[in-house]
Fold each of these.
Amino acid sequence: MSRNKISIKRILSAALAAGMALTMTTAVYADEPYTAYNYDYWDDAIPSQSAYRVDRTVTGADMGLDRLSDKNDPLYVGDDAPASLKDAKDLYYDSDNETFWLCDSGNNRILRLDGDLKVTGCYTGFDGQTEIGVAEDGESKFLNPAGIYVKESIFDDELYVYIADTDNSRAVKCTVESDREMSLVQEYTKPDTELYDSETFNPSKILADKAENIYVVCKSVNKGSVQFDKNGDFQGFYGANRVEVTAAVIAQKLWRKIASNEQIAGMTRNVPVEYANFDIDEDGFIYTVTEAANATTDAVKKLNPAGYNIWDNAVGDEYSFGDVASEYDATTNTTYKCRLTDIVVSDNGTINILDYENGRVFQYDKLCNLLCIFGTKNSTSDQAGSFLGPNAIEARGTEIFILDGSKNDITVYTETTFGKDVHEAVLLYDEGKYSEAKSEWEDVVKRDGGYALAYVGLGKAALNDGEYSEALDYFEIAYDQDDYDKAFKYAREEFLRNNFTVIMIVVIVLIVLIIVYKVLKKKGVRLIKRKKKEGE
Amino acid sequence: MYEFTPVGWLKHCVFHPVEGFEDLRWKKQGSMKIAMLIVLFFFIAMVVDRQLTGFQFNDSYVKVFNVVPLIVQSVVYFFTWVIGNWAICTLLDGEGTLKKICIYSAYALVPYIVCTFVAVLFSNFLVQDESIWIYAIQYLGMGWSVILMIQAMRAAHQYSFGKTLASIIGTLIAMLLILFLAILLLSLFQQVYVFGYSVYTEIAYRIRG
């Protein structure tokens, strides 16, 4: 009997232990291969929550690129059409038609993908009046196309594809005829004018504004992007960078003053670095990034249509982009620099900048507040979420797509709950709806108590609601001196108004006391003297 | 005439920049105790300026508080000044003794210390638009102290105005030299210590086998 009991107990406990073990093993989860961080008032890196997590990575096979070599498929290109990407350089999302356009540069083709990143079109060239790169079948083939831009025209509602065909030294504007064919509308080649004084014309990135002016970033052209009008005429250069002032530049400027003409001819010239990439937003502002390592001058610019930089620190602002300091990796004995390679403005107004060197994405809001940093590039780059050669970044709403030209895939990032809270809060905050953003900011603080922008938001909400002392506390946590100052002004006013009578009474009493003291001092002395006299 | 308490003499010096220190010298007054107290307050003023300035004006790195740089900036600089000035002016026929220079210099610092305290107090009531008041007070204190310091050195050494200025510039150079040598000496001793320590460990390992 007792033996039976024991065995039942044993069986029960064993079952329980097994059950526990099972539930424990199910609690395994995959973490991002990087630590999320943010910068505070002193530019110290502060650990933060991940605002984005890797949703999936999409390779050529996932896109269905094997269809291109399948004879029975309508997308059949040829038997030897590669089923993977090769050194892909640019990705563009056409939000009107919900299609992605991908420059598969190494395979000399343009791919059209649908919203789920499945291939729906493949273009190796186009038909039309041209003499460059014409193949036997009469099609003008692409050669290392590195940049693409797609926009529906406001003039004739036609969908135009703009392609920077780098190694053919041309940029083209095409219309889409079918899943396999494009036809040429306009070809832009090296401008035949004195103004264009560069030897080469190798477009690497391309944009078009609403008036269908074309902007082309060319390799080793440092006067800005080359601008063409709708008819294909060269218009000039647009938005050049400035030379970054370093000690070497100043020294050379001094040397030039005393050097002879022959010596000057032998010196290297200080020229600005050309920008690497750009993007255009709904309002027609063009955002540029410069890939020079640790660039501080004109690293990221927001250009108005006249080419004037709105984010110019020379006029007293303090915009900073990318990593603050170079990061030293003790394990590999290398110092990582910051090399910003691509920029994209999302529909919700966030500005995403891709750092090629560290594989990091820096996300800013409209007012250049740093929202989050994610992504990495490390030795274990086989992990999802880390990169080898991040070439392009693209955004669809809150999703971020990163095209890796070395791993030949696209990594899709989706926002976490924390990221969602931040985005919702920032959206309201940037519109000036501080009180409405309050509950969102509170959600953010619940997940990351060190998120400075949240405290600024909460402080502004409190200031809006007239709760000054609360606002002061929030601004102090965020170390936001300017907003603290504003709140302090109101708080001081309120304090004076509430305690006016008390303060006045104290002041009057003090004055009276001083007068009485002085009078008594004089009279008292006299009284003593008089008493002394009387005593005598 | 001029029968003051020691604190009264301090007041007289501060408010009479032209004749104050001459009177002090003539009457052989000046208290070393008060001078040391002033140096202590000089240090306290530094700490207060860093820690208690109103939030909207405070640009210091608040995450760490290290008192050593503040001691160096107040106490160490003061005594380097005194020693440097004594060294220079002994060579330049100055009449001041080390004690006299110490007392007179400390007295001359009073306006700066007081104005720092007042500026810190004001910074807790004012906003950035009114910051001109704080700067005005700070510059007033600084200017006043500089004038007093020139007068103090002139009285202490019985120099002409030009010679005083020259001796002050010389003193600043001497201060730099002293600090440089001090740092050199410190690093040297540190290396000697490291050498001695490594010899000790070497021997200790040998003995243990």
Amino acid sequence: MFYREAGQFKSSYNADQAILPIAQDRVFVIGVLAVAFAGVPWFIDSYWVNAIFLPFLAYALAALGLNLLTGYCGQVSLGTGGFMAVGAFATFKLITAFPELNLIIVVLLSGAVTAAVGVMFGLPSLRIKGFYLAVATLAAQFFLVWLFNKVGWFLNYSPTGQITMPSVEVFGVLVTGPRATPAARYLFCLSFVALFALAAKNIVRGRVGRSWMAIRDMDIAAELIGIRPLAAKLSAFAVSSFYIGMAGSLYFGVWLGSAEPIEAFGIEQSFLVLFMIIIGGLGSVLGSFLGAAFMTLMPIVLKNFMVDGLAVEVVTAKHVEITLMGVLIIFFLIVEPHGLARMWQILKEKLRLWPFPY
Amino acid sequence: MGSELMFFFETVISGVMAGVMYALVALGFVLIFKASGIFNFAQGVMCLFAALALYDFMAPGGWIDRLFGITLPVWLAIVATIGVMIVVAWLIERLVLQHLVQQDPIILFMATLGLAYVLEGLGDILFGSDVKPLDLGIPQGASDWALDTLGLYVEKLEVVAAITGAVLVTVLAIFFQRTRIGRALRAVADDHQAALSVGISLRTIWVIVWSVSGIVALVAGIMWGSKSGVQFSLSLIALKALPVLILGGFTSVPGAIVGGLIIGVGEKLAEVYFGPYVGGAIENWFAYMLALAFLLFRPQGLFGERIIERV
Amino acid sequence: MMFKRLTGALIGATLALPAVVSTASAYELVMPSLDYRTGPYAPNGIPFANGYHDYLMMLNERDGGIEGVKVKLVQCETAYNTKQGVECYEKTKDTPPSRALVYQPLSTGITYQIIPKASVDKIPVHSMGYGRTSAANGKVFDWIFNFPATYWDQAAVLVKYIGEKEGGLDKLKGKKIALVYHNSAYGKEPIRTLEKAAEKFGFELMLLAVDHPGQEQKATWLQIRRERPDWVLMWGWGVMNQVAIKEAASIRYPMDHFIGVWWSGSENDVLPAGESAHGYLSGAFHAPGDNFPAHDDIKKHVYDKGKAQGERDRIGEVLYNRGLIAAVYASEAIRNAMKIHNTKEVTPEMVRDGYENLDLTEARLKELGLPGFTIPVKITCANHAGPRKVALQQWDAKAKKWSFVTDFYDTMNDIVDPLIEEDSSQYAKENKIKPRDC
């Protein structure tokens, strides 16, 4: 009843092929974007930006990237942390070597560098499949992090072993460093995420995306109908790494501001992003956002609820939070194994039929 | 020259020992993957949980002490811990797996992540997060005999681990090949539907296999826990088992042992002879690179079942 | 995305709650404590957090706070994780009524996160003997304090100690010293200092990295067994320490030639190795043990009243005392700030002045019930690292006790000072900071 497309007619091919063919969806997405771009910056403060929005946006972009590879092309990867490190270090090297370069270009270039590295580590996927591939990408993860930690050139020979982002202005507005305003940092990341979410949505609807999905569903069959596995798999690795590299760049440059290779880009990152897309929904752009929101915000919500709301002792709250997080993951999987995105779809379906279930 | 050769032997031996230690962890993964196709992310945390429970049952101030005013001797504590792991397995089947039959492997993998969180949180709540020195009377330190007469450095704990590992694999192999339950397990591993149709209860099999891998986790937990004390880091040893798994194949019990040995020896030799030239600490990625190199030739692992694809 | 807004609203609600409850009450001194009682490093985080908590609670119970103003301890769990640490920092920094007065970041990663933020938020940070070494230069780092000594000082002192045992620094020539280090920014800290010292004194330095978490160190110790270095230094953390000490015992490395950094010298590190850890050495800047009057006060005012978070028999452990001394420094700095600004309602800016003019003498330590617990500390505008002296403590496995075996050594200024100058001026240049004159 609330969500009914009856009466919405499409009179042109363009309308039929729109990203969001249903009016309610369009209104909803535009509404969310309007709030995100015009509403949030007004009340955002440093807690919201550092603890909630920036982690969410950086992880959403990384999850989007991984979802293109794993959800759409079916190649499980556990190298995300390593690829984010590539993006972050590319940003660091570029911005310290060419301080006058626009940060937008730096972020895009970091993505491009990561894409190249991703293709290189994607080569084994032509022969190895499934969980075997997942663990093989761990080789990339461990090797890259080791490399960044070990080779002084990447750290600009800093004796502290940390990389630190200098303060950078974009079009006269400071977006990195401690003096940047929360709103500027937030809008910078949001623009990237929104733009590339749109791009992802279009890639997966097009020829490339369809060839990925064919490979995912059955690669031999895909080969028989004329899709080249080499091109499809490697393009998936390239595009996915491009996204992940940009995510790493924003993660380090805008959010954290300083990072140490082993801690910031460790294996936990790889698992975390993979979990985001599974819980959010494999093969769904919306799912990447929902998953990132779930995995980054849920612990904070649980913690604040217990510590501030119920006045539970901090350490107990943490233990309960970890346990509850596990329970919630299992619960959501049992209720809807195909992720939060699928749940959202079912909800829309219900809304459409309500109040008549049949 | 003689001492160089001796050193080479030492490196190989310690690689073998480390390999067995990895294999102990990898075994638990293999069992569950073989019987249910689940990649059990929680295996590392299960090791931690089992070791925590074991320590707690023997320690003054532990749960048994608080409830009954006694502390258990080692062997009784081990029996009690096995009991705990069986209960855990049963609960996992009841509360989680039962609801996720017929789902994609990646969904089940995710569910085991949830399990890992739950067990980690519960372990902390129930047993606390201090370092607990685990002393079961397993001999520790270098073997004096080997060191004095042969000039060879062999760690006693690891010899015990190696023997335990060998016994464990033999017992498991017999269990799989010769017993009724073992045959049922293999049937389930081959085909869920067919197994169900000849009257094998999938649920019982799952409880059994999770219990067995819980017991394997206990053994691994004891060995690693005796080495470093029982603490949270114990759950991270699972990462060491992953290259062993891909190398040996997810479905092969002997594969876990052979894979462990190859990885153990390979990474030690690399670290000792190649590491100093590139700055050291290459063990971790070297293990994965080694596994990757093997995979390029055998994509299903050394002993894994051949993947046959049909359109 | 709707989910996001929902959770947002929920957090908003839970965040708003404490602000509503705690109005109207009297002025309180907000002291955040970034604990890590969970995660891989929890065994070290728990005693530190307990020491910090217990001392401040004792002040509250015994004296009604600092100069009669109650301390409001705000705990936040970081699990030693940088991202959670950032969340904690952002969450606690504006806690009413006084705002956060000082941060003890407690992890290298969190320290580096907070350093740039603190100078913008105007909150002092005390990274006590860890974090960024060049923060010792107060001209560049106005808001950061890292007294009583830095990692670089400690590395220099350990070389000094070795020289003394070998019969003079000139005897170091041709000796071989190995450094076993945690393969992270923290573990790599002493390398530069040791390299400089090796150059100067002519000893050979052998670097052995151990990856996190460090449960498997066979290859490292095989190399030590082969090369037989005369001394082994360790910059370890967490489970790495326990395994290293056991491995060292296994290859029969003489324990009294094996020296850890002060994060590798607590009860947790040596107990799992049992008897074989006897004689192991580590750096220290405060005494171990609970035989000080301050500890008795803690037992009486905190533990007897059931306000403790830890166990009674673990009072006086090395890391407990480290938390305690951090609390002592913080409370003395606040007291100092009250004196300088002549108000009881101090703000973080005032506390910074309190830190910068801190002068903790032997007599004052005695008044605090900690005679001989540590060395006197005097901070100036230019020197934020204080005395920069380090002593060594040794483990007695039979008595299960740490005890001091040396006096406090001075650092080697000729080696460490240029390094500090170089790194801090580079930081100043990168961040366009104009060093203060003082």
